[in-house]
């Protein structure tokens, strides 16, 4: 198992990733989270673990861009649970709800990937087969109609 990646936050608010020896942005931290990389952010001066604070900043940055996940009403409801007897329950509930949601999302994505990989070929083959049958039926109909018309209107050998 790979050791936890350490990111240091300096007093100038810059984040330094010790694994790659480079300064990183909140967007880089977001990419680490999305990639499932385990890391810890520490205050460079005190060695205090400030990971949660940085993750909250990442969420805030994402909420300010595009379409937010949290509505104002939802944020107000979350704030109301702080200090409440149900705060611990709320934490576990949200964690478990997110875990279930992510599992379902992954299952749907896998099903869609399988559908895309397998279904188009069979769908196109079925569609081609169906179209071929329609074409054959149409041709038979034309030939039958043409034969019936020729039988009812025989022409003379000289075309008149």
UniProtKB/TrEMBL annotation:
Where's the PHA accumulation regulator DNA-binding N-terminal domain? Answer: 6-66
Any Pfam family matching the protein: PHB_acc_N
Domain named PHB accumulation regulatory: residues = 70-109
Which GO BP terms, alphabetically?
Answer: regulation of DNA-templated transcription
InterPro entries found in the cross-reference section: PHA_DNA-bd_N, PHA_reg_PhaR, PHB_accumulat
Lineage, top-rank taxon, reads Bacteria
- What's the protein here called? Polyhydroxyalkanoate synthesis repressor PhaR
UniProt source species: Methylomagnum ishizawai
Q: What is the lineage of its organism?
A: Bacteria, Pseudomonadati, Pseudomonadota, Gammaproteobacteria, Methylococcales
């Amino acid at each position: 198992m790979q050791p936890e990646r350490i990111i240091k936050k300096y007093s100038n608010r810059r984040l330094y990733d010790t694994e790659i020896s480079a300064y990183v942005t909140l967007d880089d931290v977001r990419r680490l989270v999305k990639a499932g990389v385990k890391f810890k952010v520490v205050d460079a001066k005190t060695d205090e673990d400030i990971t949660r604070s940085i993750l909250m900043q990442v969420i805030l940055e994402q909420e300010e861009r595009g379409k937010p996940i949290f509505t104002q009403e939802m944020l107000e409801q979350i704030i109301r649970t702080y200090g409440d007897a149900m705060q611990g329950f709320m934490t576990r509930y949200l964690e478990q709800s997110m875990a279930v949601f992510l599992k379902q999302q992954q299952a749907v994505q896998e099903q869609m990937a399988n559908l895309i990989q397998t279904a188009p070929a069979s769908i196109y083959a079925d569609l081609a087969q169906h179209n071929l049958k329609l074409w054959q039926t149409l041709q038979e109909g034309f030939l039958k109609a043409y034969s019936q018309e020729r039988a009812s209107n025989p022409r003379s050998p000289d075309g008149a």
